[in-house]
Design goal:
Blueprint: H1 2-18, E1 28-33, H2 35-52, H3 57-65, E2 69-75, E3 100-101, E4 106-107, H4 111-130, E5 134-135, H5 139-147, E6 155-162
Protein name: DUF2148 domain-containing protein
Domain DUF2148: 106-172
Protein backbone atom coordinates (compact mmCIF):
# COMPACT_ATOMS: atom_id res chain seq x y z
CA UNK A 1 0.00 0.00 0.00
CA UNK A 2 2.89 2.38 0.74
CA UNK A 3 3.96 2.43 -2.93
CA UNK A 4 0.44 3.51 -3.90
CA UNK A 5 0.46 6.25 -1.25
CA UNK A 6 3.86 7.44 -2.48
CA UNK A 7 2.50 7.54 -6.04
CA UNK A 8 -0.47 9.57 -4.78
CA UNK A 9 1.97 12.00 -3.11
CA UNK A 10 3.79 12.47 -6.41
CA UNK A 11 0.50 13.09 -8.22
CA UNK A 12 -0.38 15.64 -5.53
CA UNK A 13 3.01 17.31 -6.12
CA UNK A 14 2.11 17.49 -9.81
CA UNK A 15 -1.16 19.22 -8.91
CA UNK A 16 0.72 21.74 -6.75
CA UNK A 17 3.22 22.36 -9.55
CA UNK A 18 0.58 23.05 -12.18
CA UNK A 19 -1.68 25.15 -9.95
CA UNK A 20 -2.13 28.74 -11.19
CA UNK A 21 0.25 31.35 -9.80
CA UNK A 22 0.18 35.17 -9.80
CA UNK A 23 1.92 36.63 -12.87
CA UNK A 24 2.76 33.08 -13.94
CA UNK A 25 5.90 33.00 -11.76
CA UNK A 26 6.46 29.85 -9.75
CA UNK A 27 8.06 29.92 -6.30
CA UNK A 28 6.49 26.67 -5.10
CA UNK A 29 8.69 23.69 -4.20
CA UNK A 30 7.52 20.18 -3.36
CA UNK A 31 9.11 17.07 -1.89
CA UNK A 32 7.74 13.63 -1.04
CA UNK A 33 9.02 12.25 2.28
CA UNK A 34 8.93 8.52 3.06
CA UNK A 35 10.81 5.85 4.99
CA UNK A 36 13.56 6.89 7.39
CA UNK A 37 13.12 10.58 6.55
CA UNK A 38 9.44 10.33 7.51
CA UNK A 39 10.37 8.85 10.90
CA UNK A 40 13.05 11.53 11.41
CA UNK A 41 10.43 14.17 10.64
CA UNK A 42 7.94 12.64 13.11
CA UNK A 43 10.58 12.42 15.85
CA UNK A 44 11.62 16.05 15.34
CA UNK A 45 8.01 17.19 15.60
CA UNK A 46 7.69 15.51 19.00
CA UNK A 47 11.05 16.92 20.11
CA UNK A 48 10.13 20.46 18.98
CA UNK A 49 6.88 20.30 20.94
CA UNK A 50 8.78 19.23 24.05
CA UNK A 51 11.44 21.96 23.60
CA UNK A 52 8.94 24.78 23.07
CA UNK A 53 5.99 23.59 25.14
CA UNK A 54 3.77 24.00 22.06
CA UNK A 55 0.70 21.79 22.06
CA UNK A 56 -0.10 18.99 19.63
CA UNK A 57 3.33 18.59 18.03
CA UNK A 58 3.43 15.18 19.73
CA UNK A 59 -0.04 14.24 18.47
CA UNK A 60 0.75 15.29 14.90
CA UNK A 61 4.22 13.71 15.06
CA UNK A 62 2.62 10.39 16.04
CA UNK A 63 0.22 10.75 13.09
CA UNK A 64 3.15 11.37 10.74
CA UNK A 65 4.90 8.24 12.05
CA UNK A 66 1.78 6.22 11.10
CA UNK A 67 1.59 7.77 7.61
CA UNK A 68 2.68 6.20 4.35
CA UNK A 69 4.15 9.44 3.02
CA UNK A 70 4.20 13.20 3.58
CA UNK A 71 4.08 15.81 0.85
CA UNK A 72 5.96 18.99 1.68
CA UNK A 73 4.99 22.18 -0.13
CA UNK A 74 6.96 25.39 0.36
CA UNK A 75 7.19 28.94 -0.83
CA UNK A 76 10.84 29.63 -1.64
CA UNK A 77 12.47 32.99 -2.44
CA UNK A 78 9.13 34.41 -3.54
CA UNK A 79 9.44 37.79 -5.18
CA UNK A 80 6.64 40.28 -4.73
CA UNK A 81 4.07 40.52 -7.49
CA UNK A 82 4.54 44.28 -7.90
CA UNK A 83 0.98 45.52 -7.38
CA UNK A 84 1.82 47.98 -4.57
CA UNK A 85 -1.44 46.82 -2.96
CA UNK A 86 -0.39 47.02 0.69
CA UNK A 87 -1.75 43.56 1.59
CA UNK A 88 1.64 42.58 3.05
CA UNK A 89 1.59 45.57 5.39
CA UNK A 90 3.78 47.82 3.26
CA UNK A 91 2.37 50.48 0.92
CA UNK A 92 4.83 49.72 -1.87
CA UNK A 93 6.43 46.42 -2.84
CA UNK A 94 9.85 48.07 -2.79
CA UNK A 95 9.32 48.99 0.89
CA UNK A 96 9.10 45.35 1.94
CA UNK A 97 12.37 44.33 3.65
CA UNK A 98 14.32 41.22 2.82
CA UNK A 99 13.24 37.99 4.50
CA UNK A 100 13.94 37.86 8.22
CA UNK A 101 14.26 34.59 10.06
CA UNK A 102 11.29 34.08 12.34
CA UNK A 103 10.82 31.60 15.16
CA UNK A 104 9.30 29.05 12.78
CA UNK A 105 8.98 30.68 9.37
CA UNK A 106 10.50 33.69 7.60
CA UNK A 107 8.92 36.85 6.25
CA UNK A 108 7.54 39.25 5.30
CA UNK A 109 6.10 37.70 2.16
CA UNK A 110 3.91 39.15 -0.58
CA UNK A 111 0.29 38.28 0.20
CA UNK A 112 -0.29 37.20 -3.40
CA UNK A 113 2.54 34.66 -3.13
CA UNK A 114 0.93 33.30 0.04
CA UNK A 115 -2.27 32.92 -1.95
CA UNK A 116 -0.24 31.00 -4.57
CA UNK A 117 0.89 28.65 -1.79
CA UNK A 118 -2.70 28.19 -0.65
CA UNK A 119 -3.87 27.41 -4.17
CA UNK A 120 -1.05 24.87 -4.61
CA UNK A 121 -1.95 23.21 -1.30
CA UNK A 122 -5.64 23.16 -2.28
CA UNK A 123 -4.82 21.59 -5.63
CA UNK A 124 -2.72 18.91 -3.94
CA UNK A 125 -5.39 17.92 -1.42
CA UNK A 126 -8.01 17.95 -4.19
CA UNK A 127 -5.95 15.28 -5.92
CA UNK A 128 -5.69 13.28 -2.68
CA UNK A 129 -9.46 13.50 -2.35
CA UNK A 130 -10.01 12.28 -5.91
CA UNK A 131 -7.69 9.35 -5.15
CA UNK A 132 -9.46 8.64 -1.81
CA UNK A 133 -6.23 9.07 0.15
CA UNK A 134 -6.74 10.37 3.70
CA UNK A 135 -4.81 13.54 4.38
CA UNK A 136 -4.67 16.67 6.48
CA UNK A 137 -2.85 19.96 5.96
CA UNK A 138 -0.44 20.48 8.88
CA UNK A 139 1.59 23.55 9.68
CA UNK A 140 3.47 21.64 12.42
CA UNK A 141 5.03 19.33 9.83
CA UNK A 142 6.36 22.40 8.03
CA UNK A 143 8.07 23.68 11.18
CA UNK A 144 10.09 20.48 11.57
CA UNK A 145 10.71 20.03 7.84
CA UNK A 146 12.20 23.55 7.78
CA UNK A 147 14.25 22.87 10.93
CA UNK A 148 15.61 19.68 9.34
CA UNK A 149 16.27 21.45 6.02
CA UNK A 150 14.23 18.83 4.16
CA UNK A 151 13.05 21.45 1.67
CA UNK A 152 13.96 25.03 0.82
CA UNK A 153 11.49 27.73 1.69
CA UNK A 154 10.47 30.52 3.97
CA UNK A 155 7.12 28.84 4.68
CA UNK A 156 6.64 25.07 4.58
CA UNK A 157 3.44 23.06 4.96
CA UNK A 158 3.14 19.29 5.19
CA UNK A 159 0.38 16.96 4.09
CA UNK A 160 0.56 13.46 5.61
CA UNK A 161 -1.10 10.62 3.70
CA UNK A 162 -2.72 7.43 4.91
CA UNK A 163 -5.01 4.71 3.58
CA UNK A 164 -6.68 2.77 6.37
CA UNK A 165 -10.23 1.85 7.33
CA UNK A 166 -10.55 5.13 9.26
CA UNK A 167 -8.93 8.50 8.67
CA UNK A 168 -6.17 8.73 11.32
CA UNK A 169 -5.99 12.53 11.10
CA UNK A 170 -9.48 13.24 12.48
CA UNK A 171 -11.15 12.42 15.79
CA UNK A 172 -7.69 12.26 17.35
Amino acid sequence: MVDVIELAAHLMALSARTAPKATGKDFIKTKVVTGDDLIRLAEDMIKYGEETGKRNFDRDGNNVAKSGAVLLISLSNAQEVGLNCGACGYDFCNDMPDFRKGAEFDGPICAWRLIDLGIAIGSAVKTASILNVDNRIMYRIGVSAKRLKMIEGEIVVGIPLSATGKNIYFDR
